[in-house]
Design a protein that fits this description.
The protein is mainly beta. The protein has a single domain (2-6, 17-36, 59-83, 111-244), classed as Beta Barrel (Lipocalin), CATH 2.40.128. Helices cover 0% and strands 73% of the residues. It has no helices and 13 strands. A ten-stranded antiparallel barrel has the order 2-5-6-7-8-9-10-11-12-13. A hairpin with a 4-residue loop joins strand 9 (152-175) and strand 10. The protein is elongated and about 65 Å long. The chain starts with a strand and ends with a strand. It comes from Marinobacter mobilis. Keywords: Signal. This is Outer membrane protein. Residues 1-21 form the signal peptide.
């Protein structure tokens, strides 16, 4: 089920930017995230442990970013980000889950995809760089658990599908004359007992148009969609390569 969370009783107001790009800038990057998942999924009153019961391992993780910056005051810069995670595992349930009985040997697949549209301003743009803005995140996650038995396969699915606004902040500190910098960014929101945050920290080396990053990323999803709920953490190191123009 698709939901749109809107925070009532408060709003984020961004002041006019204190800094802006002198020329039009475009950048793109791709990264590999060696992620691991922990936590729980729930369907009604049934709960399954992602590590101990399902033994999920990462099959593939894709992350791609594209951004556009411009010198026009008042208009925000634009950033798009795609994260796609596929994990699978074989395990044994320590409790019943939907139609699957306790003690069953199961196979499972976790497919999680999120698309971020971020509008942001450059607040600082020198050796200290600071961006502030808002992100609209389209988060889609499906956990499929299968039990093979005589006569067929028993399947249970837990799904979360939501579009959610999040606060965005990114900072970078350049080491002059070296091409080296350190930084981090965060998207986060907490509302009505649900919370989602996505944070990373990295070191970067830049030479000519090429940017190389090595860092660590952690994403936490605590969200209930009808009878289905995810309370999971996904984290691990990442490596990234990008071009700026």
């Amino acid at each position: 089920m698709r939901k749109l969370i809107v925070a009532v009783g408060g709003s984020l107001v961004l002041a006019a930017p204190l800094a802006h790009a002198d020329i039009v800038g475009v950048g793109a990057s791709v990264s590999y995230w060696d992620s691991e998942t922990s936590g729980q999924a729930a369907s009604g009153n049934d709960v399954v442990d992602m590590e101990n019961d399902l033994n999920l391992d990462s099959d593939s993780t894709t992350n791609a970013t594209l951004y556009f910056e411009h010198p026009v005051p008042l208009l925000p810069n634009v950033r798009l980000n795609l994260t796609a995670i596929e994990q699978s595992g074989r395990g044994r349930l320590s409790s019943g889950y939907g139609p699957i009985v306790v003690g069953s040997d199961v196979t499972s697949d976790l497919d999680l995809q999120q698309i971020d549209l971020t509008l942001y301003y450059e607040v600082l743009d020198n050796w200290v760089n600071l961006d502030l803005g808002l992100t609209a995140r389209d988060l889609s996650s499906e956990l499929t658990i299968k039990q093979a038995q005589l006569g067929g396969v028993v399947v249970d699915k837990t799904e979360v599908d939501v579009i959610i606004p999040m606060g965005y902040a990114a900072a970078r500190f350049d080491l002059p004359l070296t091409g080296l910098s350190v930084g981090g960014e965060i998207n986060a929101i907490g509302y009505g007992g649900d919370s989602i945050y996505d944070v990373n920290a990295y070191g970067q080396y830049e030479i000519s148009l090429l940017q190389l990053q090595l860092g660590y990323r952690q994403m936490s999803v605590d969200y209930e969609d009808g009878d289905d709920k995810l309370d999971i953490d996904i984290d691990g190191p990442f490596i990234s390569a990008g071009l700026t123009f």
